[in-house]
Specification:
two-stranded antiparallel sheet; 455 residues; disordered N terminus; 2 strands
């Protein structure tokens, strides 16, 4: 792994210097600002007469500025990871800029979920694109999918430049971008264009919780659709066959770090905030309670809906429809959306994946007990710098295992590979190997005490 030299400081010199913008970065940020202003004018209704012009100028400027900034930042220095300003910039240390971005993100989600009429003009700007792809005007879901895909593509290109020395990250980022563009944007749009159900084919139960609800099954199997049965089979097949088989061979990374849109957004747009994940023991305890609770909850709601469907009981009807309604609002809208993504700049990028996603819970159980995946550690090489723990987006104290030479087999590890990428000593390696002797390493039963970092 190539590691570029990090500037050293003289004795007594402050090491938390602020980064100065170079000319390329300054021009790029101005382009982003003009693009953002154009977008705001469009959202306010100023682009009604020329929706395509406003769409192309707003997103073109933001994309050009974002890519220009990434190029001016990463391509002007040798390949390798440099994180020396992470703890001193407002953007990445929960400073004013981070708080402002979080406010914008959360406000967007509140408007999107509960006041979507305010986005009518944004939808109108998307109409030309929607007409081209779907032969229909843009729905709010199409607009959201377009914004989400745009963010992953632009920030994915940024990640490509930042991690250009690492084959693993280049391939993973390419798959992230391709999966989002094809499976979660172009295919659903194509399905709408041919009057089939709008299905995001990289999501399935229990993350896409409605997929196995009786009402969805009825809808998919209705005579008006030719592909409904296939899409239903695809979704259920991934939930009950794809998940165990692929997780056995590759661990949960095949989904959480390669295919899932939530993971793709975290590892592209959220990359700059990955170090903010909570590393405390209490967070690990909460994670184990919360993520399996959500899995049990959605499994129970799905079972109740089917019991009601098959028996027609009045009690199951009121319970299951109420639970379904509140699950949608509290878990999917508030937690997965507004908090899970809105709080990236404050709480780190995998808040939903780590604490709430029921599919991640399923994948995690399989990874822990029935998988060939592990991160091996060459403990004798570890110099305890802590880079790996600092940049683990799932809050795993990787250093704790590395110091002991133990393999890392944690249910929560999404196999992003960043711990290995930032390790200056090449201690860590993501591997799929034989299951016997998988828990190799010095077994240290001493658990950290309260208040210390979690392993
Ligand atoms: S342990 Fe490493 S591979 Fe696993 S989530 Fe953390 S940084 Fe990613
Ligand atoms: S494993 Fe590598 S990154 Fe982690 S503490 Fe040891 S030397 Fe540092």
């Amino acid at each position: 792994m190539t590691q570029s030299p990090v500037p050293t400081s003289k004795p007594g010199e402050q090491t938390t210097k602020k980064r100065q913008l170079n000319l390329g970065q300054t021009i790029s940020l101005i382009a982003v600002a003009i693009g953002g202003l154009t977008l705001m004018v469009g959202v306010a209704g100023g682009g009604d007469a020329y929706p395509l012009l406003f769409l192309l100028s707003a997103f073109g400027l933001i994309a050009a500025g974002g890519l220009g900034h990434a190029a001016a930042t990463f391509l002007t220095r040798p390949p390798g990871i440099r994180n020396e300003y992470t703890m001193s910039q407002g953007l990445t240390r929960r400073g004013t800029i981070a708080i402002l971005i979080a406010i914008v993100f959360v406000t967007f989600y509140i408007v999107y979920y509960w006041f979507d009429s305010a986005l009518t003009n944004l939808n109108a700007m998307m109409n030309p694109l929607s007409q081209m792809l779907r032969r229909k005007n843009a729905s709010i879901y199409f607009t959201y999918a377009a914004l989400y895909t745009f963010a992953i593509l632009v920030m994915g290109a940024r990640a490509f430049m930042k991690y250009r020395h690492s084959g693993y990250h280049q391939i993973r980022t390419t798959v992230n971008m391709g999966a989002q563009l094809i499976a979660a944007f172009l295919i659903p749009a194509f399905l709408v264009a041919i009057n089939e159900p709008e299905k995001y084919v990289n999501y399935f139960w229990p993350l896409s919780q409605k997929d196995l609800f009786p009402s969805t099954v009825d809808y998919m199997l209705s005579e008006e659709f030719k592909l409904g049965g296939f899409l239903l089979f695809w979704s259920a097949g991934l939930s009950f066959i794809g998940v165990p088989v692929l997780t056995y061979f590759f661990g949960k990374r095949w989904y959480c770090s390669w295919v899932c849109g939530c993971g793709a957004l975290a590892n592209t747009m959220g990359d700059q905030w990955r170090h903010l994940s909570d590393k405390r023991l209490g967070a690990w305890k909460f994670e184990r309670f919360s993520i399996y609770s959500v899995l049990l909850l959605i499994a129970g709601i799905t079972a109740m809906l089917w019991i009601h469907e098959l028996t027609g009981g009045a009690l199951t009807e009121s319970l299951s429809t109420g639970a379904k309604h509140w699950y949608g609002i509290l878990i999917m809208s508030v937690w997965a959306g507004a908090v899970g993504t809105g709080f990236y700049p404050i709480l780190g990028t995998r808040i939903w994946c780590r604490f709430g996603c029921p599919l991640a819970a399923m994948l995690g159980i399989l990874q822990k007990f029935f998988s060939r995946f592990r991160i091996t550690t060459n403990g004798s090489q570890c110099m305890s710098c802590g880079n790996c723990s600092a940049y683990c987006e799932m809050g795993i104290n990787v250093k704790w295992y590395a110091q002991r030479g133990q393999n890392i087999i944690r249910a929560s590890c999404v196999g992003c590979g960043m711990c290995a990428a930032v390790c200056p000593r090449g201690v860590l390696s993501l591997e799929n190997g034989p299951r016997n002797n998988r828990y190799r390493g010095t077994i240290d039963l001493a658990r950290p005490t309260k208040g210390r970092q979690a392993p």
